[in-house]
């Protein structure tokens, strides 16, 4: 009984101890054994120190032990069984556990890749939608600005406001100009035909008598000079006449084609139409004068002889100015 108890208390000779003792007996170094097994020195040291957890797994550890035993001339099967007894049932569990961890890592990696790809795609779609919305919002604004520049508000005598395009106003101005030219031509033809009908050829005797009478009635040169001087004096006086109270005078000079409308303080339209580059418009009316310009950049204004700065009243290309207010 005492011998059995002593045998039980004697510690089991481990796999690592057997390998280390056999290597020392064969007079081999750790590096030499590692070179023959194609292992690292740390792997050989782990086998001899029974630190099998530092190896890739129990299956690999068992294979290393069998190879190590063959180099040293030991019984490989016996050492393998000793390893199983020493490790116990953890060998099978360790192998299964390692496989499960690999599968878990692969599954997690694939899921992360899919999620990352979805997030990137969502960001791209959001950016594209935002850019499209911005482009669609800017386009109507550009169209509205163009439409505003092409329209002009025309205030009628009754106070109502009528919106017309610059094309319509230009067509109306051209039509008015053609009508005025036609009326002027008709009037000229009527005057010429009337003169031809009324004038008769006088006879030679009548001409001589009329010449004699005319010579008798002709005043001297001094008498003729007096009316001329009187006329020039009256013209100078007319030019120096000041405006009546409540009246205003505006002089518009056009460097570009521009539609213009001018109304007095009572809303009465004084002038309206298209003015060409190089033309001037001089108007007088009850102040304040309401001036509408279709192309404000092409017009300069003098009011009562003083230049007018109406840059603050310009909206786009049009302007509305109250002169004398």
Automatic annotation (TrEMBL):
Where is the segment annotated Disordered?
A: 192-214
* Gene Ontology terms for molecular function: DNA binding
Record keywords: Transmembrane helix included? yes
Name the source's superkingdom: Bacteria
Q: Ranges for the HTH cro/C1-type domain? A: 19-79
Give the transmembrane ranges. Answer: 111-132
Q: Which UniProt keywords apply?
A: Membrane, Transmembrane, Transmembrane helix
Pfam families on file: HTH_25 (PF13413), RodZ_C (PF13464)
Listed Polar residues bias regions: 200-209
Q: Keyword check for Membrane, yes or no.
A: yes
Query: Which PROSITE patterns does the UniProt entry name for this protein?
Result: HTH_CROC1 (PS50943)
Give the protein name, as stated in the record: Helix-turn-helix domain-containing protein
Q: Which organism is it from?
A: Denitrificimonas caeni
């Amino acid at each position: 009984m005492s011998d059995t108890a002593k045998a039980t208390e004697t510690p089991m000779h481990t796999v690592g101890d057997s390998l280390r003792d056999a290597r020392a007996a064969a007079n081999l170094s750790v590096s030499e054994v590692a070179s023959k097994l194609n292992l690292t020195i740390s792997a050989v040291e782990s086998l001899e120190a029974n630190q099998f957890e530092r190896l890739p797994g129990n299956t690999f550890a068992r294979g290393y032990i069998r190879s190590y035993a063959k180099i040293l001339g030991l019984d490989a099967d016996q050492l393998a069984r000793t390893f199983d007894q020493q490790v116990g049932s953890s060998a099978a569990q360790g192998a299964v556990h390692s496989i499960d961890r690999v599968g878990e890592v692969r599954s997690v990696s694939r899921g992360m890749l899919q999620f990352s790809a979805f997030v990137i795609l969502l960001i791209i779609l959001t950016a594209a939608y935002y850019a499209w919305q911005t482009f669609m919002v800017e386009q109507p604004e550009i169209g509205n600005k163009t439409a505003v520049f092409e329209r002009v508000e025309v205030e009628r005598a009754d106070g109502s406001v009528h919106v017309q395009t610059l094309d319509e106003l230009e067509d109306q101005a051209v039509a008015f100009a053609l009508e005025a030219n036609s009326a002027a031509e008709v009037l000229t033809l009527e005057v010429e035909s009337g003169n031809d009908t009324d004038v008769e050829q006088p006879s030679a005797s009548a001409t001589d008598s009329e010449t004699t009478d005319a010579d008798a009635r002709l005043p001297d040169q001094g008498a003729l000079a007096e009316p001329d001087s009187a006329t020039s004096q009256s013209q100078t006086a007319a030019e120096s006449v000041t405006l009546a109270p409540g009246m205003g005078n505006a002089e518009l000079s056009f460097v570009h084609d521009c539609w213009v409308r001018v109304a007095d303080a009572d809303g009465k339209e004084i002038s309206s139409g298209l003015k060409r580059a190089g033309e001037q418009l001089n108007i007088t009316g009850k102040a304040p004068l309401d001036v509408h310009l279709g192309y404000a950049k092409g017009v300069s204004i003098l009011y009562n002889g003083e230049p007018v700065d109406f840059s603050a009243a310009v909206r786009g290309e049009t302007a509305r100015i109250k002169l004398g207010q």
